[in-house]
């Protein structure tokens, strides 16, 4: 593959319940091309190759570089596609900011990778075959509204927030097998703006999350707040917002943080300030705490949250299912 058109994005595959060894897959990504006449256009970098533009994406066979901790070496592996691809390279619109990481899930020997134009590629490590899963129906591809791929109690999920039309509308899909064809089924859609908690900007934020505000202490010499070594939190009952606490007039927008791995719960951020847990089966919302640096000047300096990931302990006993 031409370097002017593609780059390799690393993904770690590790499941200690299956093996103490891990693998690193280098997935191919399409390089963003600036259009002639734009200020960012460079002829050498952004020149169009008609042969590449007409080539199939994702190709079959699909050859990847893979590192194995078992052998300590890199090797090439070839995977054969089942079903249709995503079209040609020219057909796939660019919908991700430069440098942003697309998410992936490794589950039971299957790797699910978020690809260009919100397609999802699933690779079977057992059969050396892969499928290309089309984006959810009705979800338009956008540079700002990319899908968040994750895993919850119900299996492989994806979610999006419609920033263009309604910055409070949350949509959640579940991946299902329909006669051997993988497709997304809409599980939940809600405008949670009216349910977001009212809060004055200069008031302290409660909740169980504690911000490890490292930047704050780099700029201000103040005594650090003691953090308990172990913090118990009931993800079903603690910090639940009552109906009287929910008003939407001052709420701005929500952003998606991730899925709870063992419950039908998603974690959200309200205006990049407060963490929220939303139970989509009951529409219950829990206030988690502050996720913004303490000093406004630092918050403005570092900007909003650009990427998130949820830490999931490797061993099941480290994360009780009750939480």
From TrEMBL:
At the top level, the lineage of the source is: Eukaryota
State the protein's name.
Answer: F-box associated domain-containing protein
């Amino acid at each position: 593959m031409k370097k002017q058109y593609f780059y390799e994005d690393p993904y770690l595959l590790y499941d200690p319940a299956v093996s103490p060894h891990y693998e690193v897959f280098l997935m191919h990504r399409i390089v963003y091309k600036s259009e002639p006449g734009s200020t960012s256009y460079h002829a050498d970098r952004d020149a169009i190759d008609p042969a590449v533009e007409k080539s199939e994406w994702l190709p079959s066979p699909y050859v990847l570089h893979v590192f194995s901790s078992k052998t300590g070496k890199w090797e090439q592996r070839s995977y054969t596609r089942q079903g249709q691809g995503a079209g040609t390279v020219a057909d796939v619109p660019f919908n991700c900011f430069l440098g942003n990481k697309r998410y992936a899930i490794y589950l039971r020997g299957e790797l699910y990778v978020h690809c260009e134009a919100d397609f999802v590629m699933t690779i079977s490590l057992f059969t050396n075959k892969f499928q290309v899963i089309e984006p959810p129906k009705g979800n338009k591809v956008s540079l700002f509204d990319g899908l968040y791929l994750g895993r919850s109690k119900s299996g492989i999920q994806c979610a999006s927030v419609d920033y263009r039309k309604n910055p409070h509308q949350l949509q959640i899909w579940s991946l299902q097998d329909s006669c051997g064809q993988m497709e997304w089924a809409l599980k939940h859609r809600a405008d949670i703006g009216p349910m977001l908690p009212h809060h004055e900007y200069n008031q302290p934020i409660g909740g169980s999350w504690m911000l490890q505000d490292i930047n704050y202490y780099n700029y201000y010499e103040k005594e650090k707040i003691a953090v308990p070594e172990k913090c118990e939190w009931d993800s079903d009952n603690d910090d639940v917002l009552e109906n009287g606490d929910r008003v939407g007039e001052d709420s701005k927008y929500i952003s998606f943080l991730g899925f709870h791995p063992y419950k039908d719960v998603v974690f959200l951020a309200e205006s990049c300030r407060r963490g929220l847990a939303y139970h989509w089966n009951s529409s219950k919302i829990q206030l988690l705490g502050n996720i913004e640096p303490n000093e406004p000047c630092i918050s403005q300096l570092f900007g909003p949250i650009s990427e998130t990931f949820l830490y999931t302990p490797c061993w099941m006993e480290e994360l009780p299912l009750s939480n």
